Amino acid sequence: MRIDCNANLGPFPFRRLAITDAADLLAEMDEMEVEQAWVGSLESVLHLDPAAANDALFEALDGHRERLLPQPTLNLACCGWERELERCVSEHGARMVRLYPNYHGYGLDDSRVGELAKVATPCQVAVAICTRVFDERSHPPCCSVPPVDLEPLSELTVAWPACRFVVYNALIGEALALADTFQTASNLWLEISHLEGAGVLGMASEQVGVQSLLWGTYTPVFYPEAAALKLVEADLTPSQLAAISAANAQAVLQDY
Predict the structure, then answer these.
(1) Quick one: pLDDT band at residue 256, thresholds 50, 70, 90?
(2) 191 vs 18, more confident
(3) Is it the case that residue 119 has pLDDT exceeding 90?
(4) pLDDT computed for residue 199 by the predictor
(5) 4 Cα distance to chain centroid
(6) In what order do the strands lie in the sheet with 126-130?
(7) Nearest to residue 164, comparing CAs of 255, 30, 61, 84?
(8) How sure is the predictor about 198, in pLDDT bands with cuts at 50, 70 and 90?
(9) Structural domains in the chain plus CATH codes
(10) More confident residue, 132 or 233
(11) Buried-state track 26-62, b at ≥16 Cβ within 10 A, e below 16
């Protein structure tokens, strides 16, 4: 069984993508033998108020919710994000949200992140933090955005131990800089789509911890086959592969 913890739909601001709707995504999942995907909105990245992009995401996934779980976006710099969270949870059954702190203009040490953790915990909503949208070396000059500084996560996970945090799109160096936090925090996970290099999954398993790793493809921005090959070339036991492929993801969303 495989759960793709980082799939996406919607217009991508920086280039055209091959997969644009749920039917295309499901076809790709069938080919890759992926049972379930957590799906975010690429369109929401540059929205000041992501509500309309969230609605488009919910509509796109309508009728496929047994396999495609929505990850609506919150912009904590936008007035009314609390109402948007409540709407996404109560009206659409969202179990997780995505944050793009670098694109929306705040850091993880911002008090609003703690406010979100306080509200998200009783709602049983996991918080996904997108470190980057794509490689900074490819950014157009008018839209050069640095990656999110992940260091405050070491304090966030302690301050809000019942809130579940997932780091998306981090490079291996960024992940290893937080290795001690990943090893000790039971409420923090790392999605692997941006971990690159020979044997990188084995390295992450040893230093970050198998229990903290989530399989993600970053479809359709990345080719999903790349994430599948990481599992093939990793020197891991069947139980370790099963944990990364699906069991850890199930733990993120299990009832509190």
Answers:
(1) low
(2) 191
(3) yes
(4) 86
(5) 10
(6) 73-74, 96-99, 126-130, 165-168, 188-191, 213-214
(7) 255
(8) confident
(9) 3-253 (3.20.20.140)
(10) 132
(11) bebbeebebebbbbbbbbbbbbeebbebbbbbbebbe
Is the predicted pLDDT of residue 69 greater than 70, yes or no? yes
Q: How many C-beta neighbours within 10 Å does residue 240 have?
A: 18
List 37's β-bridge partners, or say none.
4, 68
Q: DSSP string covering 94-147, please?
A: --EEEE-HHHHT--TTSHHHHHHHHHHHHHT-EEEEES-SS-GGG--GGG--PP
Angstrom distances, CA of residue 123 to CA of 8, 53, 72: 23, 22, 14
Q: How many residues does the chain have?
A: 256
Quote the CA–CA distance of 29 and 25 in Å, as a whole number: 6
Tens of pLDDT, residue by residue over 95-105, are: 999 999 999 99
How far is Cα 150 from Cα 159, in angstroms, rounded to an integer? 15
Check: CB of residue 70 under 8 Å from CB of residue 39.
Answer: yes
